[in-house]
Write a structure and sequence with these properties.
Radius of gyration of chain B: 31 Å
Number of domains of chain A: 1
Distance between the termini of chain A: 48 Å
CATH superfamily of chain A: CheA-289, Domain 4
Strand order of the largest sheet of chain A: 8-1-2-11-10-9
CATH architecture of chain A: Beta Barrel
CATH superfamily of the largest domain in chain B: Histidine kinase-like ATPase, C-terminal domain
Shape of chain A: globular
Structural class of chain A: alpha+beta
Distance between the termini of chain B: 74 Å
Helix content of chain B: 40-55%
Number of helices of chain A: 6
Largest sheet of chain A: 6 strands, mixed
Strand order of the largest sheet of chain B: 10-14-15-13-12-11
Oligomer: heterodimer
CATH class of the largest domain in chain B: Alpha Beta
CATH topology of chain A: OB fold (Dihydrolipoamide Acetyltransferase, E2P)
Low-confidence stretches of chain B: 128-164, 365-374, 556-570, 700-713
CATH architecture of the largest domain in chain B: 2-Layer Sandwich
Strand content of chain B: 25-35%
Number of domains of chain B: 5
Largest sheet of chain B: 6 strands, mixed
Chain lengths: ~190, ~725
């Protein structure tokens, strides 16, 4: 099974850290589960009420105060085109070290720390739609099912804003747009 | 670079700055020996230290300079324009080397030739052997020098700014006080941690925390405050050089140098201000012969004035030059396709003046190397607005132009009003807030008037465009006609005045501005966010951007009216109307009255037959024209609780320092009225019509108060 689904380039990569166990923080949005490398998470803030920002792109869930800063939080559900969560979301603080941009990520629930082996990571399937390709970083084959890996680098609000994919009125975004209108009314 | 060198650089730069100021002053007062001494010391210090640190090139130059200054100090040389120019080039030379040391750590040798030229020049200035040759040489330098100086100007200032950004000199006392307060903060925290919410002393602890925080904040701000004079210091030189290049005769005057401004703001307005001064000299002031023809003195004057005004600092650059020709502005604007000829024709004077802030606008007849390249006022305005300030321009043809930069005292903490709209909180900066209007539910329908789809509110017979915040932001409106009324926050920014409709007003708060991420900045409507007292976040609304988004245009007739009102102060004036003598309406101009206080009769004390009140640590003389006090003392002496209404009035004539209390029976109303002619029979009093009722105003109120006091009897 191991070498089967991997192309040549990946296998070289895999070979190098064959024994590397990765600790991931699991989180949930809708029915899907996601994982982010714990080293890339600065803090889990827990359930927070966010201050919405009118006129902001739909994927921005709001702003949250964090250690004297005002963090912009990305709403994972909105990114995935899921309907608004009625319950209060959990907020994680992520940081992209390269550009020193700190931001929040809104998810439904934060699970716990799980350890996964790097060689259980599968690359994105080629049938994945464009938005998924933009966001996901492959998936771990866990016993309970697949856990999609997210990379804070890819979730950076300014990066998301650069692409038209998640903007209101972007291609195939009619659903998200409508959802956003209802979002604002809440 | 070792600490010693760093210190030397900082010290030398300060010394050179001082020298620059002294030199330009020296030109005006050539006989001032102290100035020469000062300059000499600056150069001498540099020379002494460089020798010690081993910067030979610098030492050689400083030595030559010192020698020349020595002759000057001993009276062997007279102060001439050439000499000053020579000394200024010495200054530039020294500064150049010091900048080089700062950047590279070494003084370099590649520009050695320049030095020897400069040294030769300085020696020539000093030498008595060949006066004719010296003069010739000097004349040459004079011509060459200003160009060189303007070239050097930007680099020097840029590097100086880089340095200034990093270090700041703070009074040790201030630092000690800060440390003290931090200690106090720690102690309070310890106590708070040990006690719990229910503890009896908790409110007291919270209060202490409050006062310590306020003190600490004030001290930190104080440490960051720098006198504007630091910034002004470089202008005499700039003006001098510019005046020479442009063939003008210009004097520069300052006032309010001691006005404090936050360091970061000082840096931010440095370039806009420099630009404004350049403009004033190059475009504003005319050539001497034209000035004489126009009946003005040949020497033009640029005045730099800094002062506090309603929570912000205003820096004025005023020249007494030609002023801005509206026709020329319009012609230029049409030429550059900034406006259409039809638009231009319809423009008022004020609107036309605003055109100079458009990108790519310059009216200079000739493009000089100083200004007039089209990089202009738009940059000035953009830079000032970046830090939350504003720019205004006023111009009178033939009399000069005044450019006013208005900047907040500090960037970090802004007084704001928190409002709610569509279920969210927003902060409106107080600086933009003109007034608040509550429209009760029963009037809500009739108050809104419509022209097409545009909604307007009639505020004191002026139509005010209404902007519904919730609609603008696409929020779900929580306000329904039936529920309750709404609030109208009258805002003004960039000449736009409009009424922002919000659902509710919360408390005014001093907010700490936090920047937003770039994605949210792009929305363009919010200038930041802040954490409110209750721990929630509120977005800070950008008043000018909101106006632009809502399509509110600057209203020229509005400001026109204000100007008319100013020019014609016999017109409507706001009065506070009260009863002083029984059945007589008395009034004071509203701006004179600071507060209305109710004080216990027992608090009023008497000395030498005069009634006095202790008010905020001052002794306030009370004026009691209606004999209210006497009546009360006589009548209700038993009543310990008797209250007296006292109007605390600032004596505007004496700069608001002298306060006085007016004892009145009761306050009736605040309304605007019209001054009637002065009635000579009622010495120092004027008649006014307030709400169609005859009211009288005291015109004079003691010798000092002449301007400020108008009281109605």
């Amino acid at each position: 099974m191991k070498p089967a689904g991997q192309n040549a380039m990946d296998s070289v990569d895999e070979m190098q850290d064959e024994n590397d166990a990765v600790s991931l923080c699991s989180m949930f949005a809708g029915s899907e589960s996601f994982g982010i490398d714990t080293r890339k998470i600065r803090e889990v803030l827990g359930k927070r009420d966010l201050q919405r920002v009118p006129m902001a792109p739909p994927f921005i869930g709001g702003v949250v105060p964090y250690r004297g800063e005002v963090l912009t939080a990305v709403d994972l559900r909105a990114l995935l085109g899921m309907p608004e969560n009625s319950a209060t979301s959990c907020v994680l603080v992520l940081e992209d070290d390269e550009v020193a941009e700190r931001f929040g990520l809104m998810v439904d629930e934060v699970g716990g720390v799980v350890t996964a082996n790097r060689n259980m990571l599968e690359t994105n399937p080629c049938t994945l739609e464009a938005r998924g390709k933009w966001l996901f970083d492959g998936a771990y084959k866990m016993q309970t099912g697949l856990m999609v890996q997210l990379d804070p680098k890819k979730l950076r609000p300014s990066r998301l804003a650069e692409t038209g994919l998640f903007r209101q009125g972007g291609t195939g975004q009619a659903g998200t747009g409508a959802m956003d209108a209802s979002t604002d009314s809440r | 670079m070792d600490d010693l060198t760093k210190e030397f650089i900082a010290e030398s730069q300060e010394g050179l700055d001082r020298m620059e100021r002294c030199l330009t002053e020296l030109e005006m007062r050539p006989d001032d020996g102290e100035l020469v001494g000062d300059i000499f010391r600056s150069v001498h210090t540099i020379k002494g230290t460089t020798g010690f640190l081993g910067f030979n090139r610098l030492e050689k130059l400083a030595h030559t300079g010192e020698h020349l200054l020595g002759s000057l100090r001993d009276g062997k040389l007279a102060v001439t324009s050439e000499l000053i120019s020579g000394l200024l080039s010495l200054l530039d030379g020294l500064r150049g080397i010091i900048t080089l040391i700062e950047e590279t750590g070494g003084e370099g040798t590649r520009a050695d030739d320049e030095d020897s030229e400069l040294i030769a020049e300085l020696t020539a200035l000093n030498g008595t052997s060949a006066p004719a040759e010296a003069v010739h040489h000097e004349a040459e330098t004079v011509e060459m020098h200003p160009g060189a100086a303007t070239h050097e100007g930007p680099t020097v200032s840029a590097s100086a700014m880089g340095n200034g950004d990093k270090t700041l000199r703070i009074d040790v006392d201030v630092l000690n006080r800060m440390m003290n307060l931090v200690g106090e903060l720690v102690l309070t925290r310890n106590q708070m941690l040990q006690s719990n919410m229910d503890a009896a002393n908790f409110p007291e602890l919270a209060r202490r925390l409050d006062s310590v925080t306020a003190d600490l904040r004030e001290t930190v701000m104080q440490a960051r405050m720098q006198p504007v004079g630091n910034l002004f210091g470089k202008f005499p030189r700039l003006v001098r050089d510019l005046a020479r290049t442009c063939g003008r005769d210009v004097r520069i005057e300052f006032s309010g140098q001691e006005t404090g401004l936050d360091k970061s703001l000082l840096e931010a307005i440095k370039d806009p201000l420099t630009h404004a001064v350049r403009n004033a000299v190059d475009h504003g002031i005319e050539a001497p012969h034209i000035r004489v023809l126009a009946g003005k003195s040949a020497e033009g004057c640029v005045k730099l004035r800094a002062f506090h005004q309603s929570g912000s600092v205003v820096i004025e650059v005023a020249d007494d030059g030609a002023g801005i020709g509206i026709e020329r502005v319009l012609a230029k604007a049409v030429e550059h396709n900034l406006v259409t000829p039809e638009q231009a024709a319809a423009m008022s004077e004020r609107e036309a003046l605003q055109l100079i802030f458009l990108p790519g606008f310059s009216t200079a007849a000739a493009v000089t190397n100083v200004s007039g390249r089209g990089v202009g006022m738009d940059v000035v305005r953009a830079n000032v607005e970046k830090v939350g300030g504003s720019v205004e321009v006023e111009s009178k043809m033939g009399q000069g132009t005044t450019l006013r930069l208005r900047v907040p005292l500090t960037l970090a903490i802004v007084p704001a009003l928190v409002v709610r709209s569509g279920g969210q909180s927003f902060a409106l900066p107080q600086t933009a807030l003109v007034e608040l209007v509550y429209v009760p539910q029963r009037e809500a329908q009739s108050a809104v008037e419509k022209i097409g789809a545009a909604e307007l509110y009639r505020l004191r017979e002026r139509l005010l465009p209404m902007v519904w915040l919730d609609r603008l932001l696409g929020l779900d409106s929580q306000w329904t006609d039936a529920a309750h009324g709404f609030y109208l926050a009258v805002l003004e920014a960039e000449g736009c005045r409009y009424g922002l409709v919000v659902d509710d007003l919360l408390a005014p708060e001093e907010i700490v501005v936090k920047p937003l991420s770039s994605v949210l900045r792009e929305i363009g409507l919010f200038s930041g966010a802040t954490v409110l007292g209750n721990g929630t976040l509120a977005l800070i609304l950008d008043i000018a951007a909101t106006a632009a988004r809502a399509g509110v245009k600057p209203m020229e007739e509005e400001t026109g009216e204000i100007e008319i009102a100013k020019a014609d102060d016999a017109e409507d004036v706001s009065f506070m109307v009260f009863e002083e003598r029984v059945k007589e309406r008395t009034a004071l101009p509203l701006d004179v009255v600071e507060r209305i206080e109710s004080v216990l009769l027992t608090q009023i004390e008497y000395a030498g037959g005069r009634a006095l009140l202790q008010y905020r640590g001052d002794l306030l003389p009370l004026r009691d024209d209606g004999n209210v006090l006497a009546e009360m003392e006589a009548g209700g002496q038993k009543d310990e609780e008797a209250l007296v209404t006292v109007l605390i009035c600032a004596n505007a004539g004496a700069g608001g320092r002298h306060r006085i209390g007016m004892v009145v029976r009761r306050v009736l109303d605040v309304s605007s009225g019209r001054m009637l002619e002065e009635d000579t029979s009622t010495e120092g009093m004027e008649l006014a019509l307030v709400k169609e009722k005859l009211t009288m105003v005291h015109h004079q109120f003691g010798a000092k108060a002449a301007a400020g006091w108008k009281e109605v009897a």
